[in-house]
Each structure stands twice: as C-alpha cells, then as structure tokens.
Amino acid sequence: MAVPTGRLDGQVVVVTGAVGYLGSALVERLSADGAIVAATDTRSAEEMPAERRQWTSFATADLGDAAAAEDFVAGVVDRHGRIDGLVNNAGGGIIASFEDHSIDSLTETIRRNLWTTLNMCVAVLPRMRLQGGGRVVNIGAESVRNGLLLHAGYNAAKGGVHGLTTGLAREYAPDGIIVNAIAPSGIHTERTDERLAQGDPGGLVEHAQSLIPMGRFAQPSEVAGAVKFLLSADASFITGQVISVNGGSSML
User: Fold this and answer.
1) How many CB atoms lie within 10 A of CB 200?
2) What is the pTM of this model?
3) What's the pLDDT tens digit per position in 174-200?
4) Cα separations (Å) of 172 from 167, 168, 190?
5) DSSP code string of 135-158
6) Shortest CA distance to 231 belongs to which of 181, 189, 193, 162?
7) What pLDDT, in 10s, does the model give residues 61-79?
8) Where are the strands (E) in the chain, listed by range?
9) Residue 21 is among the residues annotated as catalytic for this protein
10) How far is CA 211 from CA 88, 93, 98, in A?
11) Which residues are paired to 15 by β-bridges?
12) CA 31, 168, 10 angle in degrees (round to 5)?
C-alpha cells in the first residue's frame, strides 16, 4: 500500500476568489505542493502582484451567475481534462448591524457567499462523479458558531455553506467525492487593513480578536495549509466536516 505523500502533484484544482489575500495564499500553497491551479475571480489577474500569479490558468468570472460558473468550469475541463479539487473561496460579506441591512445588501451577501458556492458545486460535482471522485473544500466561517458582532447577514450565507457541505458529503460519498469546509475565525486580509486604516469603525477588529484566545487573526497561509491538507491523500477518510481554523475561539 502506497504511503500518502500529502502532495498534490498533477491534480487539477480550481480556486475561486483567487485574487485577494486568502485566494492568493491558496494559489501559492497549492501550486507549491504540485497542483495545477485553475483560478478565477471577479477581479482581473492584473490586480494581483505578478509574483503571486502562480496559477496555470485564470479567468475573470462572476460565479454568482450560474451560466458564468458553468462556462468557467467547462473551460477548465476543456483545457485540463478534469477537475480533481474545488476550493470555493469566493465570497465577501457586507458587514453591518442587522437593522442597517437592506433587502438588497442581504441578497448581495448571500449571492457572494452561498450562491457562488452552490453554482460551482452544480457545475463541478456531476463531472467529478463521472470521473470517479474528487475533493471539495468550502470556505465557511467561525462566526456562524460564535455569533460575531454585526455578522448576522453574513452568517446566514455562511451557515448555508456549512449545511451544503454536510449534505453534499453524505450524498456524494458513494461516488468517491469528499466534501469538507474550513471555518476560519478572523483572517488578516485586505479588509482588515482597510478597517484598521479607518480607525477600526465600531471596534469590530478589536472585538473579533478578543474572542480568539491566541489574540490574533490567522494569516492567510495558515488557512491555506488546512485547505491543502483536506485536498491531499492524508485526508482520505475525512468528509462532511466543518473544521475550525480559529485560534481557539470555539473549542470542542
């Protein structure tokens, strides 16, 4: 019996939301471990520093639109022949008190986080089933578990991602498809820098960090390492799990 190496050599892995801090860390880590990365974002590739564009292919697409998700996935399969892993990282919430939300802002938050994930799963999972297996890692949120301040609308979307993860894991296990989610607590991203540059309005960054016993946000590379593990052969008997990468903000 072969000993798993933990590497992703030759695996075709799709990364959505690839241009931001976490997305670029995912691309960098998965590429370093041998994956062939097909990346996408609503932003253009030129918005990422050239040295971080370590994907094999890239396309700009709004995955909140089902047709755009299908077109992107079809293009990846046409170019690479298969999809072995899907990392649903596209997202981004409108963070506000619940009464400050509008129907439009709530709809947009759900579209960015839940519909992007749903649309990509609709496009990818039938192809994975036909090829005999694959891995899906959805990016959820620790705030679903700890009720983080001003996150009710965002949690509605990410809670849907968690529920989708467990449902798909059970449904597709007989097809050799493993589905998990990573639930980060705060991640140091461009939005963290923006809020701190504005003086941390509402004290949200300070509040979020106060819930983390380790006293800091995760670095994107720390979340990327957990994603890489779930895509690897070392995680071959783990499915339907929402795994916290949270510095201890919830413990079980």
Assistant:
1) 14
2) 0.94
3) 999 999 999 999 899 888 888 889 999
4) 9, 6, 35
5) EEEEE--THHHHT-TT-HHHHHHH
6) 181
7) 999 999 999 999 999 999 9
8) 12-16, 36-41, 57-60, 85-88, 134-139, 177-184, 242-245
9) no
10) 26, 20, 20
11) 39, 87
12) 20
| Two tokens, residue 29 | 């880590």
CATH level 2 (architecture), domain 12-245 = 3-Layer(aba) Sandwich (3.40)
- Choose among 71, 18, 13: nearest CA to 42: 18
- The two tokens of residue 166 are 């467990």
CA angle 120, 61, 194 (to 5 degrees): 100
Question: Are 59 and 68 spatial neighbours (Cβ–Cβ below 8 Å)?
Answer: no
- Burial letters 68-90, b for 16+ CB under 10 A, else e: bbbebbeebbeebeebbbbbbbb
Q: Which amino acid is at 157?
A: A
Among 55, 58, 72, 154, which one carries the catalytic annotation? 154
